[in-house]
Design brief:
This protein is α+β, with helices and mostly antiparallel strands. It has helices at 20-26, 41-49, 56-72, 113-127, 134-145, 177-182, 231-244, 262-282, 286-303, 312-323, 329-346, 352-363; strands at 52-53, 76-82, 154-156, 160-161, 165-172, 206-213, 215-222, 258-260.
């Protein structure tokens, strides 16, 4: 039954698993009835979206896939964390006058690979003091980044957040907004003083959304094997550019500076190893999986010097001595060899004869 209740004043709300990038870019809802924006509309919209965004599991999966690809291409990936605010895509159209570059599927701000490439190229062209002359500098730029005739020797990947990103509101106060917007269309400056650049104009606060805290995965890979030896220099240029120049917009006031986070990089690398190990295990038969698990448990006990006659290792070994009789021949042989090594290490105990017979039965 439909209740006769008014719903026109209900405001839509983004769910916990929603795409904030899509929401922020396409669902601005602060318009008045005549499609004008109230004085506080822009500030309120920015403030409402200034929160931690992104789903941890999705972000980590995307980062692992990308790092896996970079590694497969003999490249290098590393995590960098923001030193202060970060913003990119401010020139994108938006009702609040400043946009933000959002990843379409992850729903978080990111830095496109083209932006990463441009940042490194700017560092090499202008600030890199390791190049002694302009000719050497130009050759490096052509080799690394390419020309209109050929592609560069390196692939620059999108810089993706590896965990939810914290957003915060910020304000810019342009003194000559009309000049920036319509300065090129002035027909008579005496009749249009509001469009003329001058110090009598009052600043107009403009709210915008920025990243306050983020950890992003940057990646670079050589396009060919011949250029692989240059990868350390390219990555060093990236580190210097992020440290000294900053990425994205408003770098002149300190935005976009980032520093490397080795611990997060190591964590991602470890997670990739775990995923790869699970994938390898899934390819094994159930018997081979049992063998692998028993071998890993045995190796762990050896590493810590444990010899527990009544421990988990012996319990699992005795269990497989019974179950293994129905295994394929090759797996029975491998199990017999492993069980013999385990008892030789821990001790045969007072059931040595019985255990020897069971091992012999496995071998057929």
């Amino acid at each position: 039954m439909n209740m006769p209740l008014y719903r026109c004043d209900l405001q839509p709300v983004l769910g916990d698993a929603g795409n904030r990038g899509l929401w922020y870019s396409r669902f601005f809802n602060s318009y008045a009835g005549d499609w004008t924006i109230p004085d506080d509309g822009k500030r309120q919209w920015v403030s409402d979206n200034a929160k931690r965004t992104g789903q941890q599991e999705m972000l980590q999966m995307a980062a692992l896939r990308q790092l896996n690809l970079i590694t497969a291409l003999n490249g290098r990936g590393s995590v960098f964390k923001t030193d202060w605010h970060f913003a990119t895509g401010l020139g994108l159209p938006h009702p609040v006058e400043n946009g933000l570059a959002w990843h379409h599927t992850l729903g978080v701000p990111y830095l496109a690979g083209s932006g990463v490439k441009g940042l490194v190229k700017a560092w090499v062209e202008v600030w890199d003091e390791s190049q002694s002359d302009d000719e050497t500098r130009k050759k490096r730029c052509d080799d690394w980044f390419g020309t209109t005739e050929k592609a560069g020797n390196f692939i620059f990947f999108d810089a993706l957040p590896i965990e939810p990103v914290l957003l915060t509101p910020d304000v810019m106060t342009p003194h000559m907004a009309k000049w920036y917007e319509q300065g090129g269309k002035i027909s008579d400056w005496q009749k249009e003083p509001d469009k003329v650049p001058a110090d009598w104009h009052a600043p107009v606060p403009v709210p915008f959304l920025v990243v306050k805290e983020a950890k992003l995965l940057f990646g670079i890979a050589p396009r060919t094997e011949k250029s692989a030896d240059q990868l350390p220099k390219v990555f060093e240029a990236l580190k210097q550019a992020l440290d000294w120049l900053g990425a994205g917009a408003k770098t002149a006031v300190g935005y976009g500076r980032m520093v490397e986070d080795p611990s997060k990089t190591a964590h991602l690398t470890e997670e990739i190893s775990k995923v790869a190990a699970k994938a390898e295990i899934s390819k094994l038969s159930p018997e081979q999986q049992e063998l692998r698990a028993l071998h890993e448990r045995f190796a762990a006990d050896q590493k810590r010097g444990a010899r527990e006659a009544g421990g988990e290792l012996i319990g699992k070994t005795n269990q497989l001595l019974k179950e293994g009789l129905n295994w394929p021949v090759a797996d029975r042989q491998a199990l017999a060899t492993l069980v013999e090594a385990i008892f030789s290490y821990i001790g045969w105990g007072n059931k040595k004869k019985e255990r020897k017979e069971k091992i012999a039965a496995l071998r057929g």
